[in-house]
Design goal:
Elements lengths: L10 H8 L5 E6 L2 E6 L15 H11 L15 H19 L4
Antiparallel strand pairs: 1-2
């Protein structure tokens, strides 16, 4: 898919397009301005709802790392690696159930 981007010649064009949108930030730096897009809002991604609470927690942490966890749940050091281990364990359990090594 090809998208023809508009030619932007002035910051006011960008500011007008993103006015009132909380997910955009215009930050001033020593070299000029930076427009940043934030996607880590609580409602940015839908809730993960599998039948496995461990998978739910890990997937939610990957999609929204800034989400707060309940105090009794510690975030794994790397949720993607933890998710990979959980999925591997589930695969091995399934294979054992159906009689494959």
């Amino acid at each position: 898919m090809r998208y023809k981007f508009p030619i932007i010649t002035d910051l006011s064009q960008v500011e007008a397009a993103i006015k009132g949108r909380e997910e955009f930030i215009v930050a001033e730096r020593e070299f000029g301005y930076v427009v940043n897009y934030l996607v880590n809002f609580e409602t940015t991604f839908p809730q993960i709802n599998t039948k496995d609470p461990e998978l739910n927690k890990l997937a939610q942490q990957i999609l929204n790392p800034s989400a707060r966890l309940p105090r009794d749940q510690a975030a794994p050091p790397n949720p993607r690696q933890a998710l990979g281990r959980v999925l591997q364990r589930r695969r091995e359990q399934l294979l054992r159930r159906v009689g494959r090594p």
